[in-house]
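Exercise (ungraded).
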Amino acid sequence: MQYLLQKMVHGLLLILGVTLVSFILMVWFGPDQTYTLIGKNATPEQIEDIGRQLGYDQPFALRYANYVGDLFTFNLGASNSSGEQVSSILRKTIPVTLALMIPGFVLGNLLGIALGLTAAQHRGRWADRLITGLSVTGMSVSFLVIIIVLQVLLSTPYGLNLFPVRGWQVGDPLSYFRYVTVPTLSLIFVTLGYNTRFYRAVFVEESGKDHIRTARAYGASSASILWKHVLKNSLVPITTRVMFSIPLVVISGSLLIESYFGIPGVGKVTFDAITNGDQPVLKAVVGLTAVAFVLIQVLTDFVYKLVDPRIT
Amino acid sequence: MTCWGKLNRVTPYKQKIIAVCLSLGALLVLSACQESADVQNTANDYSIYRHSMDGAPASLDPAQASSIYANFLAVNLYDTLYRYKYLARPYQLEPNLAEGLPEVSSDGLIYTIRIKPGAHFIDDPAFPEGKGRAVSARDFVYSIKRQFDVKTRAQGAWLWQDRIVGLEDWKEEGSDYDQDVSGLKALNDRTLQIQLISPFPQLTHTLAQGYSAIVPREAVEFYGKEFAIHPVGSGPYRLQAFDSARAVLIRNADFREEPLSLEAEGYNPESHAHLGLELLEGRSPPFTNRIEIEFISEDAARWNSFIAGELDFIKVPVSQFDQVLQQRDPPRLESSLDEDYHLLANLESGFVHTDFNMDDRRIGYHPDKTQNARNRALRCAITKAFDWQKRNEVFYYGIGQVFPGIIPPAAPEFDPGQDMGPVTRDLEGARTLLTDFGWNAENLPVLEYGFPASVTERQMFEQFRSFMGEVGYPQEKIRPLTFATYGDYARAYLNREVMLTTIGWTMDYPDAENTIQLFYGPNSSPGSNSANYNNNEFNRLYRASSGIQPSPMRTTMYRNMNRIVLDDCATISGVSRRLILLWDKSKVMLPDRSFLGGFFFRFVDSVQHAEEGNEAEQ
Amino acid sequence: MLSGLYLWQQLRNDKSGLAGLSIVLIFFVLAVGVWAGLLGQDWSVASGARWQSPDANFWFGTNILGQDIFQRSIFSVQTAFEIGIVVSVFSTILGAFLGAIAGWYSNSWIDNAVLWLTGVLDSIPFYLFVAAVAYALQGKGWAMHIAMIATFWTTTGRLVRAEVMKLKSREFVLSAQAIGLPDLQILSRHLLPNTSHILLVQTSIAFVAAIKTEVILSFLGIGVQNGVSWGLMLAESTQEVLAGHFNNFLAASGMLFALLIGFNLLTDALQDAFDPNQAAL
């Protein structure tokens, strides 16, 4: 019980910290949306009016207090650019981002685990060297390059022209497949190198442990050793990595992919809000990201207990 | 151990992991299916027009229709009093919701306009019992008043700023909609009257803009801020879907009947015969049932989408001109494309120019007379060193039209015979000016060239720098002043912080008054006079010409003002881009991508649909 | 503490590590050449025709303005090294400092504060952070560096903290305390040097991360402002690639790839040299 309370306090402090820092960034350093919202030939009075409408003239402390209050009562307000309720924007875009990123994220990790296991199993031999070489190569290519190349190869007449260049008009599994494939492939390409290296190292370390040697001495087959013993016992580091890469891959990664492929998800909305200075949207996204981050940390501990009863 | 036995041993945690995986999978599938599908098989449905825009509107509220994209949507979802003729070029005003051109009093101050009967707002929950009502003149009054209400965050107020009697007072007294404005009245349901403070010949043009579109008060109050994504209008289309990637418009079946007369719209057999527009004669728009507009700002994606057959219309990106055109002047399509597509090469109604900030003493006005003259010489030297031909060649494929001054070719007052000297490169002249006025590599000021960060803008900057290098301007003294977004850039130059500002101006109406006002002293920042130009003679001529109807005398005054600006070298100006528009031959239309062009949507039809329509009528 | 000699002996036997090191050194020499004003100085001169193919004058051809792609690629090496070195060195120093303090005073308020700070910085969306800093510093190129340093130090910080926590119960530390040496001296003279293997590896990793991040930031327009970088070249190339001109793209992505793979091989070799069994992050 005390543990849970302690975690909650930590989480709260973290959320406050994130919101404060982000708010400082947005308010003092962020773009002034006033100048995007005025028309031609604006008078100084009109500019002031809009500034007042956007709430720019209130003191910092008051605005921050309002922000935190709004966040905890889920009063997210409306976008300054389009007038749409932020909650409605999020409701429409978060499922899109999830549908877009989850396949790539899951596959990237599954493949990474599989390749890492293979490399660890044949450690030192040609399979290991090949996989390691490929993953180093994968880590050395820029995300941007991958996106451009895949788009040219798969979606334009210069290449195979099999998939749409951009967009997200998904209504049935078939159209979903058409629109999600190229982004998913890009995501897998980018993350696979890092994932494979990490998992390989984890499995190599695990394989060197005593209980594995014991199992081998008892005549257990290579495959069962790998699957039953190595994998099971590596679940803690695997879980850590998966859980902690969710914010990085899903939230940050989606920003680039959605901008480039024109997919109306949370990442694109966030990026537009960052460049426009649309504070209501930014406040909501930052707040929610902080909350998600804290939740993930709590959940990670929980998952640890599930996979490894030894952990208290 | 039997198989079943082994299964039995799936421990609780494994079960939980499997459960998580399954629910993730379910979430995936659910998300995919939940995407509301407007996706019909569009390939064979010929009453759909798939349009593409190279940008997206932020808001569908007409009061915020400041971009060309928003304006396009506003004039189709709502009614404006006036529009422009479909086919006539140069553009000519045509009544839209109004019944005829306005009745103007002899002193030019009172405009009386009657509106047509039978215009209806669409059905919407905002109205009692969800039924749309008839449009009345009071709605027009309300719509213009909105522009002067702080809560609207309107962007179009400048069109009527200080023009209409009583409107500013109304705003100062708190923008109470139940309070009347003396210069903006609805005499009855179908007649409205506007009283101006001083003559304003361009007023009727302003009533053809998206800003003046007629909105119902009930909807604005019902939806509040969300009115921007919930349009309720009386236009030829209503909105079915809208997000950052696309908009879908559905034909408004209750739109008033107005049979199309090609001749009245400016049909000219020479230019229009090959378009097959005769099929549309006598039928009442809107013709197409459904319009899908894709917002694709990335050139690559837009072009690929068009070539793949996903779009019926495209404004061709400049990088593709090489591949699309087999001949530049006059532009002609590659033979392979010629079979399937029509081509239209339109000069934009607007122009691109680089202003010097005259408020900046390093390059602009200086209280000391000698220094003032030296600054002017420097500006003129820079202008002479600018290579318009190369700029045109690299960025506009050589088919843009370069012209001297601030009256672009699209304006009726443009002088095609004027002296091209100011835009012809003259390196010798530039160097002479510099030496004559004592400028050399040591005392030349650092030039700060402002631009929003984008690939093309950066390339233009680098090209500018190399132009200056050829006349001896030290490269380190030409520095980029970048801004992450256009809004940021606007803030800087509207606060007079940028030394050289490159801007594109889109004309709001086909009248040079719209561009001449860019250099009128009192319009300086934060107004549109970004050069902060202030010349007494220019200002005097502007005031003298402002109430006058378009006429040869006014044209002469405008051309004089043009010369004054050129003499002062206040701006390096300019070029009007030529747009290449392509559309599928199965569509019968004359498209337009200018600010004034949004009205063409209602006249779009497909060949098959038009032929069937004609047969049905016979 | 690991001596340079020991490190070199380990590396010598690692063929791929040597390859990586040589690649990095070659690029370093190029960067120095540009700094010294010997190479790549004409990167902004528009002397050629538009989109020329590679020939004797323009080894990689020209871009839309007629600028020499080869010169631009070479100049970008300097940009990459400048960003890489500044970001990796400063983020490592910052991480080492804060991590050491946190580890030394572990479970005290100092430790909690540092941990809280790392948590906060990790949860702020990175692009929001960079964009905000970019606007604040309005066009001066340091925005990118500062934003990266402020977020990259956290990994180093955590690792150093863990290591210091492990080491501080060791004999040599206890004896130093018994003698009465001040904390700061123990930290700087005895503990930190024992983390040098972590620091070296992290510097290498941060270098790679910095270059990759710059590419994306420049593409988005909030990266390099004055000058040229591979990120800017790639941004240019996205339009050109459509019209069938691939030189810009191939040059930038090729050189970027070469430098990155050199560094990655070097990083791997360093990690193997320090502890062949240690799981790498």
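Further reading is listed at the end of the chapter. For now, observe: DSSP finds 13 helices and no strands in chain A. Chain A touches chain C through 50 residues (CB under 8 Å).
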